[in-house]
Every structure is written in C-alpha cells, then in structure tokens.
Amino acid sequence: MMVAFRKMHGLGNDFVVLDARARSLRVTPEAARGIGDRHRGIGFDQLIVMEPPPAGSDVFMRILNPDGSEAGACGNATRCIASLVADEAGRDRVVVRTIAGDLPVERLSGGLWRADMGPARLGWRDVPLAREMDTLHLPLALGPVADPAACSMGNPHATFFVDELDAIPVAAIGPELERHPIFPDRANIGFAQVLSPERIRLVMWERGAGMTLACGSGACATIVNAARRGLTGRRATVELPGGALEMEWREDGHVLMTGPVATAFTGELDLARFG
C-alpha cells in the first residue's frame, strides 16, 4: 500500500506525518520501528498519524515513538499538524486532539505558531510516580545529577537543574533515568541550565526516542519546574540544540509554547513493507 507522507520538523525535532483522515491506515508498532529506522527507513523522532477529528476538534493526532510505543503529547508536532489543518481550512486557529486532551493552536506573525499545551499536572499520581512523594524534589540521583522536579504535560517529565550542561553525559545516563523504577511509565528526562531568570538551556532525553534536537513538552515541563523552584519567572526562552521556544506558564496552569514549523520534503512509502 503506497501512502503519501510528509517530513516535517519543529527546530529539528522531526516527524513523518501520515494522513489517515480519508482512509484508515493500520500502523503497527513494527511499522513505526521500521519507518523510524534512519538507515533502512525514513527516520523520525516521532511518527504522526492524522485521524478524523472527534467532535469539538479539527484533527486527532496519534503519536508513535521510534520504538513503537505511543506518546500522549508532542509540542513541536502539535504546531506542525495545526499548521497543516489551519492552511487547509483557511483559518488561523485550530484544535488538535491527542490522547492527553485538546490543544488549541493559533497562527502568529513571522511563521510562528502558539500552542496551548494544557495545564501542567503536578501530583505524584499525575506524573505518574511509583509512590507518593514531593514532585518538586524527587529522591533520584545518578552520576553528576540529582534532585529533579517532575510534572506531567500529558506525558511524564523529570527535570534536572545543573550548573554546567555541557559537562553532563546525557546519552550515557538518559536511558537509565528514563527507565528508573520511580517512573512506572518511564519518563522524559530534561537537563536544564538556568542562564538567567529569562533564559534556560535544555537538552532532552525523550522516552522512546532518545536525544532529540528539540522537545516541546520538555520545554513546557522545564519552565513549569524552573518557576516552581523559583529559578525563573513564569515566562522564559528555552534554548534547545535545534533552536529556541518561547514559553509561558499562565496563572491558570496552562502552558503556552511558541515556535516555528517546517516541511523538509514529501514522498510515498510502502506501508506493507514495514509490517
């Protein structure tokens, strides 16, 4: 079955986008792993399947990781999908639904899109964590990092605040932290260096994907956890390896994320070939 796809990215956080709104597509975990192989497939940080919109939304966005697991949130992909649907409809505001809830997105000037990523969830069951504990200070340490803060942005996040980001062996400790028993559903792990009350450097180890150039939900978790710790205000620029996102944690608990979208190329793939 030949299926059209679009390769998109937000700050280098890249996606293969399939459109299953007009015809159903059976995308198995095996197929996601095959398409995600950067040597034998196409390669992506997440595979996005656009599905028919449930009532009250403009599109349903299903998110699959390169290991075949399903994710509940992806901020950069949310902006990308919203841009496609908004351009089709000739509108500047759309609602993207995910398994974690509805995400309103609006077009701004200069090719930027602002997504309301919903409220940060701060309870230990919300993250979730394996047992009751203070989500502002987790009893977790590995190598040079310790004492992360945790929250959920529709997916579990833990943020370690460090003095010198370049000294952290992210690729070496990220996999172990992702799968630590304190996180029953695994977790996205952020390593953040606060440069000023308005600027944060961030490198992410994403659950099911590994190191990526950018992570929208990770940037959301970082501004929330930094503000909770008193390290920043509720607005800051989060600088990722692929570029910067403008972040705001509103007083009502919702997190706003502003950044660009881009299409790299389009093509067709044989879905049956990947299983």
Describe this structure as you would to a colleague.
The protein is built from 4 helices and 19 strands. With 275 residues, it is of the alpha+beta class. The protein has a 17-stranded mixed sheet that branches. A two-stranded antiparallel sheet has the order 9-10. The radius of gyration is 18 Å and the shape is globular. The relative contact order is 0.18. The mean pLDDT is 97.
- The secondary structure category is alpha+beta
Strand count, sense and barrel status of the largest sheet are: 17 strands, mixed
Shape descriptor reads globular
Uncertain ranges: none
Order of helices and strands: EEHEEEHEEEEEEEHEEEHEEEE
Gyration radius, rounded: 18 Å
Strand fraction equals 35-45%
Bin the helical content: 10-25%
If you average the pLDDT, what whole number results? 97
Overall strand count? 19
Please, how many helices? Answer: 4
Query: N-to-C terminal Cα separation, in Å?
Result: 11 Å
Write the layout of secondary structure elements.
Blueprint: E1 2-10, E2 13-19, H1 29-36, E3 46-51, E4 59-64, E5 70-71, H2 75-89, E6 93-98, E7 101-107, E8 112-119, E9 141-142, E10 145-146, E11 149-152, E12 156-161, H3 170-178, E13 188-196, E14 199-206, E15 210-212, H4 216-228, E16 235-240, E17 243-249, E18 254-260, E19 262-270
Parallel strand pairs: 2-3, 4-6, 12-13, 14-16
Antiparallel strand pairs: 1-2, 1-19, 3-4, 4-5, 6-7, 7-8, 8-18, 9-10, 11-12, 13-14, 14-15, 16-17, 17-18
